Amino acid sequence: xxxxxxxxxxxxxxxxxxxxxxxxxxxxxxxxxxxxxxxxxxxxxxxxxxxxxxxxxxxxxxxxxxxxxxxxxxxxxxxxxxxxxxxxxxxxxxxxxxxxxxxxxxxxxxxxxxxxxxxxxxxxxxxxxxxxxxxxxxxxxxxxxxxxxxxxxxxxxxxxxxxxxxxxxxxxxxxxxxxxxxxxxxxxxxxxxxxxxxxxxxxxxxxxxxxxxxxxxxxxxxxxxxxxxxxxxxxxxxxxxxxxxxxxxxxxxxxxxxxxxx
Length: 262
Ligand SMILES: Cc1cc2nc3c(=O)[nH]c(=O)nc-3n(C[C@H](O)[C@H](O)[C@H](O)COP(=O)(O)O)c2cc1C
What we know:
Layout: H1 3-9, H2 24-35, E1 46-52, H3 58-65, H4 70-75, E2 78-85, H5 92-101, H6 111-125, H7 135-153, E3 157-161, H8 166-173, E4 179-188, H9 205-208, E5 210-211, E6 213-217, H10 222-230, H11 243-253
Antiparallel strand pairs: 1-2, 2-4, 3-4, 5-6
Helix pairs in contact: 2-7, 3-8, 5-6
Flavin mononucleotide binds at residues 11-12, 68-69, 159-162, 183, 200.
């Protein structure tokens, strides 16, 4: 699948085939994609525990279950618990040294000296601030986005879900004190059509993106829009006419308890 089409098909999938396990190799490809994403200072604080419904202990499944729309977690064959480990920031000086040695940052023969005399002492002086949410969560998002595209490219669907159960998850999964649980990502084979009711609404392009200064919308070329539509990145807008019928079919098929925003 071309990248543009993969981006267009990346849609939150809430209904998975509960009977169809996900091959560990497919999950590995997702994690490999996350691992090579960019991180500020090459810190690499993104971590994950992959919970397989078929083999995880009941207490682990119970801990991850308490998310919003819990039925999604209960039915999904795999739940990836993504977290950020702030302890990774403690090793940042070494990551910077690796970057210089790799030829990724700096030019000329003074780069090592300047790294040791200026950059590393500066970062050392603000070490605790650097652990705060901000760039770290951005890094995590980039890694998770790459993993997500890899999932769709392999015929899988995913949905990110927040959780109020951070402490229970920390305990059951053995996360260190320095971990911040970010999001749970269900992974499985979609039970719904890939369109999942159509492209979900988005704010107008010109409201989101600007040129040179806020207030001047970034010019949106219709030619580019048409090209991306042709490539499969822009798809039919939600709700498709049969979405309600599809939802009712899915609700019965995977035995979703109750109705409403469950
Ligand atoms: C970081 C993140 C957290 C999310 N948390 C939840 C959640 O707790 N519950 C939920 O029902 N959906 C959650 N979602 C899914 C969004 O509601 C979904 O992305 C949105 O409806 C747009 O649909 P789309 O992803 O198909 O474009 C989350 C998505 C992201 C990216």
